[in-house]
Amino acid sequence: MNDQKLNFFTKLWYSMTQFSKYPDMIKQGIGKAFLYLVLLTLTLGTVHAVITGYNVSQMIRGFNELVKQELPAFTLQNGELSVEGEMPMVLEETQSSLFMIDVTGEISSDVLDQYEEGALVLKDRVIMKESSYEKREFTFNELEINLTKEDIVTWLPYLEWLGAAAGIFMFFFFFIGKMSSALVISVMSLIFRAIEKASLSFGGLYSMAIYALTLPVILDVLLSIFWYGTPWYLYYGIVFLYMWFGIKQYKNIDDWGKES
Questions:
Q1: Is pLDDT of 254 > 60?
Q2: I need a surface site. Which of 49, 104, 217, 222 has the fewest CB within 10 A?
Q3: How much is the pTM?
Q4: What is the pLDDT of residues 187-216, one digit of tens each?
Q5: Does residue 23 have a cis bond before it (omega within 30 degrees)?
C-alpha cells in the first residue's frame, strides 16, 4: 500500500476496523506510530483534557457554592474559634461516626468515644478520630493564623484555576500514559507472538500496541463526558483482542509481517 494513503485519519479508521491493515501500518516503522500517538494526543487528548478541566471546574464551583451557603460564619483569632449558630452544631451523625462543632465548652472530647470515627471542633482545638484505636488532635495556636469565613469566600474564586490546571495535566498525562500502556501491552503480547510464531520485532509490537489503543481511548474519552471511565478489564480486553488478531496477520511471514 502507498504510504501516502496512510494518513492520520486513515490509520484511525483502520486501527478500529481492519486488522488486515495492521501489517501495512506497522511496516511504516515505530517513528510513524509515535507520530500517530502525538496526533492522537492533539485530537482526543485535547478533548479529554477539556472535558476533565470542565468537570473539575464544575465540581469546584459546586463546592464554592456549598461553602458560601452551608459553612457557618466563624472567626479564628489568637488561637480561639468562635462560630455563629446554635451549639453544639452536629454536621453529620451516624451509628459509627460523629462530626460536631462546639465552642461553648459544654461538650467533652469523650463524646467521640462511642463512635468509630469522627471529628470534634472545639474552641481551641480539633480532635479527629480515625478508628477505634487512633485519635489525634491539634490546637489552633499551632496554625498561627487568623481566619474568617469572609477570607475563605474571598479565596474561593482562585480555586477555579484548578480546572485549567487539571486539563493541562491531563493532556500530558494522556500522552505519557498511552506510551507507558503501549509498552506494557507490547511486553505481554510477546506471548501472542510466540503462540502465533509471527516474525515480528518488539518495535513492531510496540507500534501495533499504539494502534490497538485507538478504540479503547475513544470509548474512554466519550465516557469521560459523563464522569465515567472505561472499566479496566474492558479497556485492556479490547486492546489485547486487537493485538491477538493483529499478530495473527503476521503468522508465517518473515518480512515484518507483510502479507504476500
A1: no
A2: 104
A3: 0.70
A4: 999 999 999 888 889 999 999 999 999 999
A5: no
Question: What's the CA gap between 121 and 80, in Å, rounded?
Answer: 11
Q: What are the cell numbers at 205?
A: 509490537
Q: 20 falls in which pLDDT band (50, 70, 90)? A: confident
Residue 256 cell numbers, joined: 515484518
Strands 89-93 and 80-83: unpaired
Q: What is the pLDDT of residues 120-149, one digit of tens each?
A: 999 999 999 988 778 888 899 988 889 999
